[in-house]
Design brief:
This protein has helices at 39-43, 62-65, 68-77, 96-104, 108-112, 169-175, 206-216, 232-242, and strands at 2-7, 9-10, 21-26, 29-35, 54-56, 88-92, 120-124, 129-131, 134-140, 148-154, 157-161, 180-184, 220-224, 226-227, 247-249, 255-257. The chain is globular. The strands form three sheets. A seven-stranded mixed sheet has the order 7-6-5-4-3-1-16. Helix 6 (169-175) links the parallel strand 11 and strand 12. The protein is an alpha/beta fold. The structure holds zinc ion (2 copies). One zinc ion binds next to helix 2. One zinc ion binds at residues 59, 61, 143, 164.
Amino acid sequence: MRLTVLGCSGSGPGPTSPASGYLVRADATRLLLDLGNGAFGALQRHLDPWELDAVALSHLHADHCADMANLVVHRRYHPTPPTTAAPLLVYAPADAPDRLAAAYAASAEERASTDLSDVLAFRPVADGARVGAVTLRATPVEHPVAAYALRVEHDGTSLVYSGDTGPCGRLVELARGADVLLCEASWPHVVPGRWTEPPPGLHLSGRQAGEHAAAAEVGRLLLTHVPVWCDPAALLAEAQESFDGPVELAAAGATYDV
Ligand SMILES: [Zn+2]
Ligand SMILES: [Zn+2]
């Protein structure tokens, strides 16, 4: 299984990376995890978007799904779609049809008649869905909106993506023994004058990402979703303090063997 980081900038795109988007390839299967701002362009450096088998959205904040509007345009208006083209499977929180229609439509009037089901086939984020050669597992995590961590399994290997979450025991359970934990780290653990411990239910610090990796005994930790206003090196150092295994910062455009 191979993971390609299309974008890893937290909370929005940055000067060196789109927002969240991750391409997972296993045998002939092409699964996309999230499609934030700018990630649809980056995707096209790696494959023809028609080759996608499915998209899984961790949650519906714009930095994780904004480019779905562009994917809809591509599938709806491409002049020469493959003759075999069917609506693309989209595993997403229940509000996705409304949320993505709202992101696509330019006015309230257009919104009222927007239906994306001609190009997207929405499915609930289900634990155990089979997508081609991989199995997709999921668990709800701690974020202000419905949000999921996702686990992709293939041929004895496993990749877990945290999505956006505060500290979460269910993330540890889902990630247990995974080869790679692609985990968000969105702020420092201590911010002098502001907090000595991050507020719960939102995001993880670098230290907390490392703690989750250690508790789940994963093989390797990739930190992602670092916002432009944070120092990535500081978050990496925090994670290295709390996790003994290999840790690195996810890099836009990089491909990792899982
Ligand atoms: Zn986010
Ligand atoms: Zn979020």
